[in-house]
Write a structure and sequence with these properties.
2 domains; TIM Barrel; 360 residues; three-stranded antiparallel beta sheet
């Protein structure tokens, strides 16, 4: 499928989607991207239905354009008291160096959409133009309810097998998340083998191997990169790390400083921060995780309870290196511009990159 039908489905003007980065993308960011003709996004996996509703309403106060609401569809965590206690003991020296103590126990801080009835009810009331899924799919009845509400549905995939599941479920497009991408790996089953396909290979495999329009994601930072994936058959490109340094980003000062440092050249995949593999800027937490057997790490998102506590302790002590500083391999190419200005630059770069092709 060519780009135009997907753009019409999403009700956007240009094939640029701002990634829904929970804790980083804001209503202001999503609205700015939407006003520039792209698809702005918010991630609501880290909040409840009331918080998500407020974010949706905040965007609507800023724009009448369509936007995307992203949901986490992970398998609900199973508590493992012994493993969790051992994990907290492992982190204790780092807490103590920061003058803090670890939590007494871990909690499941995020509720998966697969069991969140309040979130579903809110979405059916608010009816955002687009809803997307990460970490898998909700039940058939939830998908059907959202479709009947007139909502366009997207899902992330890291393999052809996952993309075919999205196709069978009746979704409208697939986000091909390459291994370069920042943030949480969208694998349906994090315990399953991961072929770690890069964005270019995965995009081409999905374009040829299934029928849904493909949105390429991972390592895309400028107009030339967007043009490259469009030439491979993608209908659009999704950019996340490119927007971390924008004025509308919720990234804190330590995160922004790390993005502009040598750490941007050394991103790494780690499960130690949250319990699921995620690509981060190199920092103290990723260094800690490098020496840990994955079998020792508790389930997502219970591990993230400890990760957030350690980050809070670090920030209180003036040490920002324990943050979840998610970023993709394109991090060194990040530009510090307001979201609207960045969109304008991306669009001009894309036009310039496609101009020779348009003349043919």
């Amino acid at each position: 499928m060519t780009a135009k039908p997907l753009l019409e489905t999403l009700r956007i003007d240009v094939p640029i989607i701002q990634a829904p980065m929970a804790g980083v993308s804001s209503p202001a960011m999503a609205a700015a991207v939407a006003e520039a003709g792209g698809l702005g996004s918010i991630g609501v996996g880290a909040t409840d239905a009331a918080g998500a509703r407020k974010m949706i309403q905040d965007i609507r106060a800023r724009t009448n354009r369509s936007f995307n609401v992203n949901l986490f569809c992970h398998r609900p965590a199973v508590a493992d008291p012994a493993r969790e206690a051992a994990w907290l003991d492992r982190l204790r020296p780092d807490f103590e160096r920061l003058g803090a103590t670890p939590p007494a126990a871990l909690a499941e801080i995020y509720k998966s959409f697969v069991e969140d009835d309040d979130m579903l009810a809110m979405l059916l009331q608010e009816r955002p133009a687009v809803v997307s899924f990460h970490f898998g799919l909700p039940s058939v009845d939830r998908i059907q309810a959202l479709r009947e509400a007139g909502i366009v549905l997207l899902g992330s995939a890291t393999s052809l097998a996952e993309a075919r599941q999205l196709e069978a479920a009746g979704l409208d497009a697939v986000v091909a998340q390459g291994y370069e991408a920042g943030g949480h790996r969208g694998s349906f089953d994090p315990a399953a083998p991961d072929d770690r396909l890069g964005t270019l290979a995965l995009t081409r495999v999905l374009v040829r191997g299934q029928a849904l329009p493909v949105i390429a994601a991972g390592g895309i930072m400028d107009g030339a990169s967007i043009a490259a994936v469009l030439r491979l058959g993608a209908a659009a490109a999704q950019l996340g790390t490119a927007f971390i340094g924008t004025a509308e980003s919720l990234a804190d000062a330590g995160y922004r400083a790390a993005l502009g440092s040598e750490a941007a050249h050394h991103t790494t995949m780690t499960a130690a921060i949250s319990g699921r593999p995620a690509r981060s800027l190199a920092n103290r937490f990723t260094a800690l995780g490098a020496s840990i057997d994955p079998a020792e790490i508790p389930s997502y998102p219970r591990t993230y309870d400890a990760g957030k506590a350690l980050n809070a302790a670090g920030k209180a002590a003036g040490e920002p290196g324990y943050g979840a500083q998610w970023a993709g391999q394109g991090a060194p190419l990040a530009r510090l511009l307001p979201a609207r200005a960045l969109m304008e630059v991306l669009i001009e770069e894309l036009k310039a990159a496609l101009r020779p092709q348009l003349k043919e």
